[in-house]
Design goal:
alpha/beta, five-stranded mixed sheet, two-stranded antiparallel ribbon
């Protein structure tokens, strides 16, 4: 059995195979050469959403948000801080529900911000409401526990 993990590049969306033991070694994309982990959430759109959720072997936490949402804007720095704390074990991503309402509807997003945790292409947990960085990290680790 191979210990290689599939990781989607946050820059070019190429799928990379990385040995699990090398995740913490700051791996680069084989296609574009940029870092696979940046310590910042990945901005997703309709085209990249399914690729990141479905092809990544590590869990992906998605922040469903909108630019007009005050609590979303207040949580953004904490979410970015959580990305630095959770990578490379978890990929953090953001999806603008205003720009991509069909994806928000597909997942039944009724309030924002909503965090949805995906593993193996399926949603495994959801949390609505703004949270601080420590709370985000604690919640994610508790779900993956």
């Amino acid at each position: 059995m191979s210990d290689a993990l599939h990781l989607v590049c946050p820059h070019c969306n190429a799928v990379n195979r990385v040995p699990a033991a090398r995740l913490a070694d700051a791996p680069n994309c084989g296609q574009c050469g940029k870092a696979l982990f940046t310590g910042h959430p990945v901005e997703l759109d309709a085209a990249s959403f399914d690729r990141h959720i479905g092809r990544s072997d590590i869990p992906v936490l998605v922040d469903f948000w909108a630019p007009w949402c005050g609590p979303c804007r207040m949580m953004a720095p904490a979410y970015a801080q959580a990305a630095g704390m959770l990578e490379p074990q978890v990929r953090l991503a953001k999806l603008d529900t205003e720009a991509h309402p069909a994806l928000a509807a597909r997942f039944g997003i009724r309030s924002i911000p909503t965090l949805a945790l995906f593993r193996g292409g399926r949603e495994i947990a959801r949390q609505a409401g703004a949270m601080g960085a420590a709370d985000i990290v604690r919640w994610v680790r508790g779900q993956l526990g």
